[in-house]
Amino acid sequence: MKSLSAILALASLAARVSAHYTFPQLIVGGANTTAWQYVRETNNWQDLNPQTDVTTTDIMCYDSAMSGTASTISVAAGSTVGFTVDGNPSNLYHPGVLNVYMAKAPTGTDVSAWDGSGDVWFKVYQISAVTDGGSTITFPATGLAEVTFPIPAQTPAGQYLIRVEHIALHVASSYGGAQFYIACAQVQVTGSGSGTPGPLVAFPGAYTGNEPGILIDIYYPIPTTYIQPGPAVWTGGSSGSGSTTAVSPPVTTTAKSSSTSAPITTVKSTTTTAPPTSTGTGAAEFAQCGGQGWTGATTW
Ligand SMILES: [Cu+2]
């Protein structure tokens, strides 16, 4: 006969299994495509668990167990694409920040057969945290059911991986606590873009896990500033150098990131922050939800 505690443990496990999220659908032309059709199926497609090791190759596309291939869809440079969020609930409910990177498959290599290794990734979009000098910190990505962003108009034609990454920071005050929710889509970018994307980083390699935006206590003391992990957003600068290697573009031509449409940390919050609320037995907003060794609430 099952004891009550065993039943509760099972219920807790079920809640834990459904308590995170994935990015299964690419959004193209304003329409959601089929789950895992153009997005490489991630290892967590069922358990929804985050990746927490920034040194593993799975910090790139989190797809080692699933063979990591998908179909490739054509998208125009300058158009808006996106990812849906799937989970329970199906939104980015953890407090955290978001990055989107792209990487161009080498000429002659089909992106579906490419592992994305090397210093090939440039950032095209981000949603950072908003601080006001220590009174509040807010996370505009929180609650999004989908994430949309433009492919920079100057992106050269070719096959690319698009990597979305939500870094949940609710248990990030110790090393390895930040939770990375990741997925990679395969696209064929069309158009006549002639920019030189950069700065370029590698996965793993882009993060050590010790960055002030990854190893951070977002609760106390309230951070006075927030530094978004990763390189600056590339907004489409053209080097005009005619480089055919594009391995290490000059950083000087890509430093302008202020024109991105993403919310940046300079926005001053004018609303007063409501105290965390709780629903039922779930955890309070921004409170811990899951994580290794966590035995408390896993929903909210
Ligand atoms: Cu979670």
Automatic annotation (TrEMBL):
Question: Required co-factor?
Answer: Cu(2+)
Query: One Pfam family this chain carries?
Result: AA9
Give the EC number.
Answer: 1.14.99.56
Q: Which residues form the Auxiliary Activity family 9 catalytic domain?
A: 20-226
Q: Which GO terms label this protein's molecular function in UniProt?
A: hydrolase activity; metal ion binding; monooxygenase activity
Reaction(s) the record says it catalyses = [(1->4)-beta-D-glucosyl]n+m + reduced acceptor + O2 = 4-dehydro-beta-D-glucosyl-[(1->4)-beta-D-glucosyl]n-1 + [(1->4)-beta-D-glucosyl]m + acceptor + H2O
UniProt GO BP: cellulose catabolic process
Keywords in alphabetical order: Carbohydrate metabolism, Cellulose degradation, Copper, Disulfide bond, Hydrolase, Metal-binding, Monooxygenase, Oxidoreductase, Polysaccharide degradation, Secreted, Signal
Where do the record's region annotations for Disordered lie? Answer: 237-283
- Amino acid composition bias (Low complexity), ranges on this chain: 241-283
Q: Where in the cell is it found?
A: Secreted
Q: What class of enzyme is it?
A: oxidoreductase
| Cellular component aspect of the GO annotation | extracellular region
- The residues forming the signal peptide are 1-19
Q: Which PANTHER family match?
A: ENDO-BETA-1,4-GLUCANASE D, PUTATIVE (AFU_ORTHOLOGUE AFUA_1G12560)-RELATED
What family does the entry list? Belongs to the polysaccharide monooxygenase AA9 family.
**What's the protein here called?**
lytic cellulose monooxygenase (C4-dehydrogenating)
